[in-house]
TrEMBL record:
<dbReference type="GO" id="GO:0005654">
    <property type="term" value="C:nucleoplasm"/>
</dbReference>
<protein>
    <recommendedName>
        <fullName>GIY-YIG domain-containing protein</fullName>
    </recommendedName>
</protein>
<feature type="domain" description="GIY-YIG">
    <location>
        <begin position="54"/>
        <end position="164"/>
    </location>
</feature>
<dbReference type="GO" id="GO:0005737">
    <property type="term" value="C:cytoplasm"/>
</dbReference>
<dbReference type="GO" id="GO:0000724">
    <property type="term" value="P:double-strand break repair via homologous recombination"/>
</dbReference>
<dbReference type="GO" id="GO:0004520">
    <property type="term" value="F:DNA endonuclease activity"/>
</dbReference>
<dbReference type="InterPro" id="IPR034998">
    <property type="entry name" value="ANKLE1"/>
</dbReference>
<dbReference type="GO" id="GO:0000712">
    <property type="term" value="P:resolution of meiotic recombination intermediates"/>
</dbReference>
<dbReference type="InterPro" id="IPR000305">
    <property type="entry name" value="GIY-YIG_endonuc"/>
</dbReference>
<dbReference type="Pfam" id="PF22945">
    <property type="entry name" value="LEM-3_GIY-YIG"/>
</dbReference>
Amino acid sequence: MYEKKLLLMRREMADIKGIRYSRQLEMAMLGKTSSELGKDLDDRIREEFQSAGVTAFCYLLLDPRKIMEDLDALDLKSFVPAIFYVGKGTKARPLAHLIEAKKERNAGSPKMVSNAKLKRIDSIWGSGNGVLCLQINHSVSNDEAFVREAALIEAIRLENLTNVKGGEWRGGSKMWTMPMRAQFGTYQLQRALGVLKMEGLRPIKPEALPESLYPHAQKKNP
């Protein structure tokens, strides 16, 4: 309960003072940093977890209202503010958030007001837009996905997201300094921006979503 109140206070302060990201990300937004350190940390993580599995990935939920239509001109300054949730998972995990939002929305649930993530999704849909879901860091182990997710949150900062808690550090990353963690997250955001430019915008509206992730299984087991 205390942690949730503290996070809420930080978000309110961010609204008042204006968004403040990690120093590493802000420097990258100004074009005043090299990606070499981030690349080095990426190589370390790949090597450490290369034999631990390949079923997980990370993903970003984005608000398309904050992204310019001209993707070629999109940069970190306009890309990062559009990110409102960072996650990791397997299979169709990203869609689970949207299906939950659709279900609670149709039921008129108070969660659509009290839950920051669901509230943002509802706002996007209410404006006639769809939520953008960008998958990154494919085919990694669960532990590696945890580290990558944690670094992304560290770079953006939790108070600028709708995540309830920060990420989890695994393996050698537990010994990293905060600047190293934020630098690794910044490097991933730079790569994610490239993925978005290549794949384009694919907004997801509620009418395109199934009632559940496994509708066929539900039919077999009513």
